[in-house]
Amino acid sequence: MEKIMHAIEAVNGEINSVVWGMFGLILLVGTGILATALTKFFQVTHIAMWFKHTLGSLFKKDVITHSKEKGSISPFQALCTALAATVGTGNIAGVAAAICIGGAGAVFWMWVAAFFGMMTNYSENVRGIYFRRKNENGEWSGGAMYYLVDGVGRKKGMKHVGRVLAILFCIFTMLASFGIGSMGQVNKIVTNIAQAFDVGALSSVEVLPSVSLYNLILGALIMILTALITLGGLKRIASVAEKIVPFMVVLFVLGSLTIIAINYASILPAFKAIFVNAFAPEAFVGGGIGAIISKVVTQGFKRGVFSNEAGLGSSVMVHSNSNIKEPVKQGMWGIFEVFADTMVVCTMTALVILTAGGLDGGVFNVLTGEIASGYTDATLVAGAFNSVFSLGSIGEKFIAIAMFLFAFTTVLGWSHYGSKAWEYLFGAKTTFVFRIIHVCTVIFGAILTSSLAWDISDTFNGLMMIPNLIAVIILSPLVVKITANYLARVKKGKQIEPLYNFDPETQAEELAREIDE
To answer: Which domains are assigned to the chain?
Structure first.
């Protein structure tokens, strides 16, 4: 087993260094900058509009009411399912890992990635709705594979390129669903629960090298829970997500705000450390100044993408199941998704770590970059909460529960993503086969080492990102056209035909549905 793990680690390391090297980072951030520039900074210039159509519409009947259409879900359910997949361990352990490796400055680069990622996600969702189609079960199916084939593939001389990229994207998505959507998440669940709710009689029994009986039992229980929900399909996943996600996000933010408020004197030093260390990292990172900054930036971007998934082409697969007809409206939910995930939840996590003890040390010393004895990136946030809620280790237990909710819902969301990729390759009638395989991979998260689980997730993310971003770049003029069409109708009141779908037949059906409504 140990030799196999070393072999996996070596191969993964080689691939990871390529996909997350300079090429991957330039492609990722460059695409976000391009999407932002072409839409004239839509996330800023139309901030009031996208807030109104997302957060401001949560009490509207057409947004929250469950869809009666087969395989279709409400915009709010689509958001919750997408957030279920994005708001995961990356928001807690991922942020902690970025700070531990790259220092406080990594947080700034997470913000940068999220700012431009808002428009990458917007562009993905606009295309997702525009190129979606009904599958053999009469349900909506959308995602990068469809706009690669029907968008990129329709460009002159690009038919086979689009199809090959679509197949590669689906393969990488299924692999990613085993990494970011299964093993990486479960690994963090087990690590935190085992520490916060230790059962000595079980944790003292070693069944594999560095793997206790307790870990295996926890993994098995999570696997059973996953099966009960994911085998029921998207409707069941969305139903669970819309109940858990709002609750867990609000609870975590309130808990974080409490920690930050108690350590209010460290708030300004924390922000100073974030901005200063982003460009002048402390010596603890190691290497020459160029290497230091490169490491800080890389960690910020990698963990940012791991957290909000903008650029992966993942969440578009569930947004495409929304009963919304307007591509731009669903695109605005994509902007809000990245905003809520990174600008809100990840920022809360970062400030909790950086203010809990602050310049005096605490769980993480802002000046030296040293982690307090007994903590790792996986347990750093729990230690920060425990520094305030220490009675009975309530803080640690709170984070263990939060980690479980965050990570478990991510497993549910990624089960849907992987099943959509499988559907494209093998047909809608066989997706239950993928769901069973996905459920079985859960147990491996309980036995992999923390670092390997994260590294595998990073690699699969990077591989999945490349074909998707190629499509985002090539089809960017189309997004500009669809956006202009929407703004002309909504803002300027022009009587022009909406752009709902690339397929004339589906476009006609959507227009007819609009008249009926």
So the answer is: 2-486 (1.20.1740.10)
